[in-house]
Write a structure and sequence with these properties.
The chain has 905 residues and is α/β, with parallel strands linked by helices. The chain has 3 domains: 66-364, 3-Layer(aba) Sandwich (Rossmann fold); 428-664, Type I PLP-dependent aspartate aminotransferase-like (Major domain) (Aspartate Aminotransferase, domain 2); 737-904, Aspartate Aminotransferase, domain 2 (3-Layer(aba) Sandwich). The chain has 34 helices and 23 strands.
């Protein structure tokens, strides 16, 4: 064992030698056979230091490169409870920060920590870890620190306090259990020691973590070892490095990292407790937690003197780069802060500055969901999403809704390799959940077969008008705004009051074929108003579409709804359908999806086929969001133990019904005969080989996943961030040599289908004729028939891979006024043949082409195995604006993202 004189003289030589000596003592303490003798030597050493230096720690440090301290943790002036501490110059001295932190921890009832598993981050010399064990009797408390010398110091301090001066065991105050079994110390960067350790979770994670950026910007991954100089190791107790978080700007990156690690390792119902300097200001501090979905509570706060060894200059630099100001105070009682720059000048002039110090408690009400979200955000490719993460809402229920959805979205993205086209009628699971919601909350008996999903109510209402050959439509003011463009010499639209009583009189007198109507708020609660309107419409042969969007909010406490109450006791007649846009969304106010509810099977099939040719599909994530919201409203209900009603029937339109009520237009029925629609009725299974199938089922690029997640995880996205115009302009220029001019317009749609539908209608308004190459994309040909547009066909041949020949095109242009020529470019659909530069040049040089409009569908571009030897320069071929053209593009094929529904023209 050491001789006291020899030991102290060796320690005089250097800090490293003193450290090596104490490492030997630690080894002896850890060995049960030598533990008692080593502990008694420490008692002798403490007495030596105290007698020699009378409590002047700086002198002991200077002479021997170590000292001993004692701290009273009793919180009671009349009865002290001291803990003894070894201290190295490379470790942080206990001071106001740690005292304030322990005060905050001491405010808790013992039950919050007793028999719990705790861990302290940045434990330093271990005094708070040891004090927590003595005072609160946890099952186990761990102390972690990145400074290897701090951990050696902590372990020695452990034996100083779990064994008394006579080397006998010390017990905790509450359970009377040996302290030596309750405390462990490990070298660790925050919680790194426990990350990836199986099934290791904590009841409480607490820490006082550096939050001042190092003035020399040392890097976070610099290797730390016990042989480095004291000043370097000490700096890790006082400063932090940038961690790659937006909070780095205010020195809070290390706390952000600790919080996210804590989310992984905290038990349900557990607490994270942080001691945080208030210099960045309350708003910045609380934002750190709240944007991550963490609930915070202020446990304790006091003002402390700004440490003289903490450099303020980095804070001044931050102030110069942002509109925010740090908060310092000129005295302990001041409530008016001054900036970092002012504080520095004030100190140089002889003043003393202070800052607030706050102990925050953090809890997570949605731990599993938040943990799941962060499992995805750990991926470096999701860093932009992490920086933009915002789970903060004033309304806790709104925050919960978003958090649960993002957790579901995380699972979806992890399990999805590409984004396929969905069902035309809408995803089955979504339709089932809508039906289940109506059945559970309004006691109806619908199934998914009674529902049709559309992107929005405008798309659905437009298709209703396009499908049925009505000559007179009555609509209330809001719906009339949508329908005004359909007025013509063959169709009269009359605006009606939002009163069912007045509407019934108008129906009786005017006998319209269609009524599209929303009850006023008072009448929407009345079963009798709805029942009476149904009766009048049935008598007069009027199809009735009632929009309840304004009166249905997806909630566990839905408001009274007379229409749905009626349906709990009655069938919905074939001439009546319910329209409902899901628009009351507090989380994503721009997300709308719509459903049609009817028992008329013929109507559902007709409007589904209509959707196939107009908007194609409803975007998958619109459906997914509302589907998950419905799931949360249904998952707790004991559906199986309640008596189930017989499902409502589905009824086809009879001949008598069709004689009485307005029929589907002939041109619409003809368009439904096209093979692209007829395939929907074929018995297709997973084993079916589909030669008509054009979907890309390769893996979508990861950047698409990260962009989707970022778009949902953020709030307050700037307009320029969602403006796709610059990227699309760059794509058109690099791929096709098209430079959009100031006169060019780019339009966006939910896929290419609605854009082409709009082009067909524009062509008709301008009295044009659509020209299709033989064998061209069938859906677009059927769409033209659906709108009853004039059509001409250009003959093509398999000998030429179904490409357009200039000679054939020339003849059509010569015989047709105002041609709108559809061209799959640069790839021919369906053969996949590619137009060479010379071939497209020959097409665009056909005489009279300047009198035509070229519609180029480029959606299959970007997947060619071989790039063109000669790049396209379409601007020159278009004669710099003299030839009118439209370019259609999207992400369905190139990005394997058909289900996302994004197109441009």
């Amino acid at each position: 064992m050491f001789n006291l004189h020899t030991f102290t003289e060796q320690c005089r030589q250097s800090s490293n030698q003193a450290f090596e000596n104490f490492k030997v003592i630690l080894r002896l303490l850890e060995d049960k056979s030598s533990r008692r003798e080593a502990r008694l030597f420490l008692t002798e050493l403490i007495n030596f230091i105290q007698e020699r230096f009378s409590g002047v720690n700086e002198a002991a440090i200077e002479s021997f490169h170590f000292t001993f301290l004692s701290i009273d943790i009793s919180n009671n002036k009349d009865q002290s409870e001291l803990i003894s501490l070894l201290h190295f110059p490379s470790t942080f001295t206990p001071e106001e920060w740690s005292y304030t932190f322990f005060e905050g921890l001491s405010r808790y009832n013992a039950a919050e920590f007793q028999n719990k598993t705790l861990v302290e981050l940045g434990c330093g010399n271990g005094w708070i870890t040891i004090a927590m064990a003595k005072k609160f009797a946890p099952r186990k408390v761990f102390g972690l620190d990145i400074n290897p010398r701090a951990i050696i110091c902590s372990k020695i301090n452990l034996y100083l306090n779990v064994l008394d001066g006579q080397a006998d065991d010390v017990k905790d105050k509450l359970n009377e259990e040996n302290l030596i079994d309750k405390i462990e110390f490990y070298e660790s960067d925050l919680l790194g020691y426990f990350i990836n350790k199986q099934s290791f979770y904590f009841d409480v994670i607490f820490g006082c973590i550096p939050q001042v950026l190092h003035p020399e910007n040392f890097v976070v991954n610099e290797i730390i070892n016990e042989n480095q100089i004291d000043d370097f190791l000490y700096s890790y107790s006082n400063y932090c490095a940038k961690q790659g978080y937006v909070e780095d700007l205010f020195g809070l990156g290390l706390i952000a990292k600790a919080l996210e690690q804590g989310i992984d390792l905290i038990k349900p119902g557990g607490k994270l407790i942080f001691n945080i300097g208030g210099r960045p200001g309350k708003k910045i501090l609380e934002r750190l937690f709240e944007r991550r979905g963490v609930d915070i509570k202020k446990i304790w706060q006091r003002k402390v003197i700004q440490a003289s060894d903490t450099e303020i200059t980095p804070m001044i630099n931050i102030e110069e780069q942002s509109p925010n100001r740090f908060e310092f105070y000129m005295d302990l009682n001041s409530n008016e802060p001054i900036s970092a720059k002012t504080a520095k000048y004030y100190v140089h002039a002889g003043g003393q500055i202070f800052h607030s110090l706050t102990v925050y408690e953090c809890t997570l009400q949605n731990l599993d969901s938040i943990r799941n979200i962060f499992s995805l955000l750990k991926d470096v490719d999701y860093q932009d999403a992490l920086h933009g993460l915002d789970l903060c809402f004033k309304d806790k229920s709104t925050a919960e809704e978003k958090i649960n959805f993002l957790s579901a979205l995380t699972r979806k993205l992890n399990n999805t390799s590409f984004f396929p086209y969905g069902k035309t009628k809408g995803e089955t699971i979504f339709r089932k959940r809508i039906a289940q919601y109506l059945n559970s909350y309004y006691h109806t008996n619908f199934t998914h077969q009674h529902l049709l999903i559309t992107p929005n109510s405008r798309s659905l209402i437009s298709n209703i008008v396009n499908v049925y050959s009505a000559s007179l439509i009555l609509a209330d003011t809001d719906h009339a705004k949508i329908l005004r463009k359909y007025e013509s010499k063959n169709l009269i639209l009359l605006e009606v009051p939002q009163s069912s009583t007045l509407l019934e009189e108008l129906i009786t007198k005017l006998k319209p074929q269609l009524v599209i109507f929303s009850f006023n708020e008072l009448q929407s609660k009345s079963i009798e108003c709805f029942k009476s309107l149904i009766s009048v419409c049935e008598k007069e042969g009027t199809r009735l579409f009632v929009n309840i969007s304004a009166y249905l909010e997806l909630s566990s406490f839905p408001q009274n709804n007379g229409i749905l109450n009626y349906l709990s006791e009655n069938n919905l007649p074939n001439h009546v359908a319910i329209i409902c846009g899901l628009v009351k969304n507090q989380v994503y106010s721009d997300l709308e999806v719509c459903f049609l509810l009817t028992q008329n099977e013929s109507m559902i099939e007709t409007l589904a086929n209509s959707g196939e040719l107009t908007y194609s599909r409803t975007p998958m994530f619109l459906q997914f969001y509302y589907s998950e919201l419905l799931f949360d409203l249904l998952k707790f209900q004991m559906v199986s133990v309640r008596k189930s009603q017989k499902p409502a029937g589905l009824f086809k339109e009879s001949a008598d019904f069709e004689d009485k009520f307005v029929r589907v237009r002939n041109n619409v029925l003809e368009s439904f005969d096209h093979p692209c629609i007829q395939t929907n009725a074929l018995p297709i299974t997973k084993t079916t080989i589909r030669l008509d199938y054009g979907e890309n089922e390769l893996v979508s690029p990861k950047s698409l996943n990260t962009s989707i997640f970022e778009s949902f995880i953020r709030q307050n996205i700037a307009d320029e961030e969602i403006d796709a115009l610059p990227e699309i302009s760059t794509l058109l220029k690099s791929r096709f040599g098209i430079n959009p001019s100031n006169e060019s317009k780019i339009h966006f749609g939910t896929g290419v289908a609605p854009l082409f539908s709009a082009l067909v209608q524009t062509c008709m308004e301008q009295h044009g004729t659509l020209v299709f190459p033989q064998g061209a994309y069938g859906y677009f040909y059927a769409t033209a028939r659906y709108f009853n547009a004039p059509i001409k066909i250009i003959s093509t041949s398999d000998n030429n891979q179904f490409k357009i020949l200039p000679s054939e095109l020339s003849q059509v242009i010569k015989d047709t006024t105002n041609c709108w020529i559809f061209l799959n470019f640069p790839l021919v659909n369906p053969t996949g043949a590619k137009y060479e530069t010379s071939e497209i040049e020959a097409i665009l040089n056909v005489p009279g082409i300047s009198n035509a409009t070229i519609i180029m569908d480029t959606v299959f571009s970007g997947l060619e195995f071989e790039k063109s030897a000669e790049p396209y320069q379409l601007d020159k071929l278009f004669d710099n604006g003299k030839i009118k053209y439209v370019v259609l593009g999207g992400i369905s094929k190139e990005f394997a993202g058909g289900g996302l529904r994004f197109g441009y023209s």
